[in-house]
Amino acid sequence: MGEKTDKISGRAKQAVGAVTGDGDTKRKGERQEDKGKLKGKLDSTVDKAQDALEDLKDKADPR
After folding, report:
1. How far apart (Å, rounded) are the C-alpha atoms in residues 52 and 18?
2. Domains of the chain: total
3. Cα–Cα dist 25/20, whole Å
4. CA–CA gap between residue 8 and residue 38 (Å, rounded)
5. pLDDT of residue 1
6. Helices (H), 1-63
7. CA distance 29 to 37
8. Nearest Cα to 13, choosing from 34, 38, 27?
């Protein structure tokens, strides 16, 4: 699943768990939402690393 899908699904599971009193479902939702947040941070970090690499390539290539 993607970042946003994980976050939304996780929130939905948390809500279902809270309404039904199912702590296990609520915790699973929390973990899934956290997973989505981590995916977003990872994507951002990868983008920054790729930008930095392109900058280095531009500086190294004296065209």
Report:
1. 44
2. 1
3. 9
4. 14
5. 78
6. 3-20, 23-60
7. 12
8. 27
